[in-house]
């Protein structure tokens, strides 16, 4: 039987803090700041706009980045886990909090923004690979859901091919699984041939076939 590593209380606290940070909904927090009466998701949806959407996205990316930074900054020395492992665990906890937030009855959003925030601090090269690969898939296929998943899969292959440490490799595995779960309806419609293509991508594909 494999021994179970004993984590320090600070390690558990950093992971819990990452989850609680991730559970904060950027949409609800910003909507409440903008209009105290907008406490529900329905009321918050009435405040949508380009600036609000950009601020919400920045908030959700920022909480993933903050969770990773706090773990790297305050990871206990001499613990069973490395400092880097603390960062990836806290960042992934923030992603789980974003997807299943305790503050909002475990009904959250797609994991993408929190994943971006965590990678921004922990592995910018992996984030760049995800964005580039995802953008290429999106432009060539026109399917956004497929682009998210295949872009993350490229990050996983990069981590494996580059001989990354286990924390980074497992973070990439978790990212692929969570994105596939979040995009499962899009992937199923793509499999059944009913998923709509992005209009500009359709025009690009028609131009390439000429």
Annotation keywords:
mainly alpha, 11 helices, 210 residues
Q: What is this entry, summarized?
A:
The chain contains eleven helices and no strands.
The count of β-strands is 0
Low-pLDDT regions: 42-46
Amount of beta strand? under 5%
> Termini separation (Å)?
62 Å
Structural class: mainly alpha
- What's the tally of helices? 11
Helix content: over 70%
SSE topology string: HHHHHHHHHHH
Question: Would you kindly provide a written description of the structure presented here, covering whatever features stand out?
Answer:
This protein is mainly α and 210 residues long. It folds into 2 domains: 1-109, no CATH class; 123-210, no CATH class. The protein contains 11 helices and no strands.
Summarize the SSE layout with pairings:
Blueprint: H1 9-22, H2 26-34, H3 41-45, H4 50-74, H5 83-99, H6 112-122, H7 124-141, H8 144-161, H9 166-182, H10 184-192, H11 199-209
Helix pairs in contact: 1-4, 1-5, 2-4, 4-5, 4-6, 5-6, 5-9, 6-7, 7-8, 7-11, 8-9
